[in-house]
Amino acid sequence: MHVLTVLDHPNPNSFSHAVAQSFMAGAEAAEHTAELADLNAEDFNPLWSQSDIDPDAPGADLSDVSAEQERIARADAVCLVFPLFWWGMPAMTKGWVDRVWRWGWAYDQLDDPEKSLQRPRTGVLLIPAGARSDEIEQEGYGAALETAWIKGTFGYFGLSPRKMELLCGSTGSEPRRKALLARSFEVGRTLPPPAK
Ligand SMILES: Cc1cc2nc3c(=O)[nH]c(=O)nc-3n(C[C@H](O)[C@H](O)[C@H](O)COP(=O)(O)O)c2cc1C
């Protein structure tokens, strides 16, 4: 399979970068090809604007969005890596999602979150999170994020099968971080094929 990893972190020495590298190493160990979209290094513009609403208006230019869509088009699996910020996506990832997975390209109706205009692709969320797993479970954050992202977002994207891995305690001890990187490698190595 061809695996696209979309990474959001400006610091090349961050844990998120290490997670993306481990995931891609796992995918390559399983003989998949890996492509990285490093949104900060590539200076992607995440700001949704009038051009996104009316791409046919004079001066509108969505060539950056088209380039991202071409990347997705050649991928059989898509993995998003970003640090959990305020129980949500950091602005760069949010803008990439908002702008690239457009109405008319990714979806064209709102009544069925399982219907997409895109062919099925395997979908993965690998999310470093500072909180501990017991806190995330007790407060219901994990279930809320699963509903919003796995059902409400990846469903519309046509990503299937799909999974979310919260890498809890990402700011913890070295052994903890090593275990989370090993988990990221395994997720890459054991990627299932897209649904038929
Ligand atoms: C602005 C900001 C908001 C954050 N919000 C959360 C949060 O809501 N839940 C959580 O578990 N961790 C939160 N964190 C912690 C980050 O998820 C954690 O620092 C990150 O995963 C570490 O990865 P990195 O080294 O790649 O930055 C937040 C950190 C920052 C800077």
TrEMBL record:
<dbReference type="InterPro" id="IPR051545">
    <property type="entry name" value="NAD(P)H_dehydrogenase_qn"/>
</dbReference>
<dbReference type="Pfam" id="PF02525">
    <property type="entry name" value="Flavodoxin_2"/>
</dbReference>
<dbReference type="InterPro" id="IPR003680">
    <property type="entry name" value="Flavodoxin_fold"/>
</dbReference>
<comment type="similarity">
    <text>Belongs to the NAD(P)H dehydrogenase (quinone) family.</text>
</comment>
<feature type="domain" description="Flavodoxin-like fold">
    <location>
        <begin position="1"/>
        <end position="178"/>
    </location>
</feature>
<dbReference type="GO" id="GO:0005829">
    <property type="term" value="C:cytosol"/>
</dbReference>
<keyword id="KW-0560">Oxidoreductase</keyword>
<dbReference type="InterPro" id="IPR029039">
    <property type="entry name" value="Flavoprotein-like_sf"/>
</dbReference>
<protein>
    <submittedName>
        <fullName>Glutathione-regulated potassium-efflux system ancillary protein KefF</fullName>
    </submittedName>
</protein>
<dbReference type="GO" id="GO:0003955">
    <property type="term" value="F:NAD(P)H dehydrogenase (quinone) activity"/>
</dbReference>
